[in-house]
Amino acid sequence: MKRSTLTLLAIASGFYLLLLIVLRSLIPETLAPTLPLLALPLVVLALILTLNLSDRSTAPFELKARETPRRMRAMDMQSLTRQVEVAGRSSPGYFDTVLRNRLRDLLIEKVSLETGMERESVRRTLADERQGPLLLGDFALYRLLYYPPARKSEARLQMLRETIDRIESWK
To answer: What is the DSSP track for 92-115?
Structure first.
């Protein structure tokens, strides 16, 4: 117990004892004190302690971490533009590992925001070849992002444009 509670308890007990002494001196010895007369100060003491302790009690509550939406900054756009330019001249492996992974991440974020699912569960669901198309509801978009890319650079750029259009229009 805290010191303030003990102080309050000592003061209330002293007041109760003083009240009993005063009442005992006022009431003749032949008359026995009634039960409510003796119990009422104890009830008042219990109420005082309850109020004192309930003022200090705290109720736990759940803190939810705020997620701030990620904004595309100018440097991100420049970097993505450079990656698209390089992808037009590069190998299918670079296209697949850099650009398509970035587009998959954007799609995962959009699906997560639209459906309310966690990002990791969306990522796992889309990686599954049976559940992924069902979640998206657009087999062509799933095919563009998760099937092997085209070999020619023009076809890859066209595929990139189509993928971006489908991601923007999804749901």
So the answer is: HHHIIIIIIHHHHHHHHHHHHHHH
Question: Long-range pairs for 29-33 at CB < 8 Å and ≥24 separation?
Answer: none
Q: Which residue from 47, 49, 41 is spatially nearest to 8, judged by alpha carbons?
A: 49
C-alpha 124, offset from chain centre: 21
Q: How many CA atoms lie within 13 A of 24 on its CB side?
A: 7
Q: How confident is the model at residue 23 (pLDDT cuts 50, 70, 90)?
A: confident
Distance (Å, rounded) from C-alpha 86 to C-alpha 94? 9
| pTM as predicted | 0.49
CA distance 61 to 21: 47
